[in-house]
Amino acid sequence: MKLFYNAQFHTIKEKNDTVSAVLVDDSGYIKETFIHTPQIENVEKIDLHNNFIYPGFIDTHTHSFEGGLYSLSANLENAENLDQVFEILAETKPVSGKIFAFHFDENNIKEKRFPTISELDKIFPEIPLILRRVDGHACVINSKAAKMIDWEKPLPSDFNGYLFKRANGKASNWFHKDLTDDAIIKAYQQAANIALQNGHTVVHTMIGDAYSDIKHYKLIKENSHLFPIEFIIYPQITNVDIALEIGSRRIGGCILADGSLGSYTAALLEPYSDKPETSGILYRSDDFWKNFIRKAHKNDLQVAVHCIGDAAISQILNCYETVQSEDPKDLKHIIIHNELTSDEMLDRMDRANVSAAMQPMFDRLWAGKNGLYEKRLGKDRTSRTNRLASIYNRNILLTGGSDWYITDLNALMGIDAATRIHNEKEQLTPYQAIEIYTKNAAILSGDEKRFGTIEKGKLANFVCLKDNILESRSIKDIPIHSVIV
Length: 485
Ligand SMILES: [Zn+2]
Ligand SMILES: [Zn+2]
Prior knowledge:
By secondary structure, this protein is an alpha/beta fold. The protein contains 17 helices and 19 strands. The protein starts with a strand and ends with a strand.
């Protein structure tokens, strides 16, 4: 047994609950917690040097495979012009015979546009390449890739490499498919290491997409001993039979009710402020969702769906309400992102026992004066984005996530952003922000008996910080001393 001592353990069981030592048994479970460090013989004593300990962070929404894979590839986050993009690409090594680039944002590029297919062909004439937009909802590919992908309908003769909607999904799916098992495991290992370095001990990850196979599910399960953290897996499919066959307890993820605000594909109840001729797109019919969600609910699967705009959230919420009133269950179906909501919608979420897996960093990136939200939605609707406090205060189960690779896999950044939402009324307190990355996240996956707080009988998953989150002026900059799993 091990005695961890000389630290301020924030249990997150309830507010202001701290202990100063924790005894852990040989299988990694907490045997006892102590207010005063006890004198115990015959245990290994581990001095935590006066640091601040919290339950290991849990990110409830990532695309860890893509994140891991892309972090082995080209990151275009800091490119300022297309020449820099081309330089970074030229130095990129293929993974499994393909070139991947991500985090491209044409708005941050001097030329304000995507590269063209011929520009990409000059650098990689013979190796297929995909360059994905920062939100994942659009991409550019080169000619080699265009030739190799098996399209549903032929590309236009003046194809310039740019793809969105279904064709974007088709292309990214082709790139992620047919990688060797080794490359896939390597990507998840890379993801697990990045997660651990940033204080996480559990990460929810979306796998595949609505068109792809569920090979990853099996690979992660079979190789879980290779990862230093635990993955909670979401098969991103809409075929309930397959989810049941592989033994999953949940289905969905970023299966799309709508697209993104950046590309005007998020579905809104009122038109876009800067493009009044459109209100975005509902990707699937009401009937499609109703049938899918009803079948999943009947079979006790937790459902998760990507919804950005208020029209998309209403569409999915309607289905959740229907199944919950027909057959009440505690499955905690999830609306992922849940960006634009009204009070009335939140009240309905509460009544229908729906949970919200949200990304506080989206506010940091897109809210604020002249930000993307204000452009697309106007001031009034912007005040109804990322309503963390309104959701938390209704007792809707709220959890935090990064949507990595969209934002960094970094819970301290998320906690920091949650406490500093642009609309002050929607800010969480630091304690509440910790809860959405620990205790609440464990409840979401039904693992509240195993982890999420520092309590007797739970796994000793700890993140050890050099400063106290509850008193820090810059949470995102707190150094991580160590992580204990
Ligand atoms: Zn999504
Ligand atoms: Zn996502």
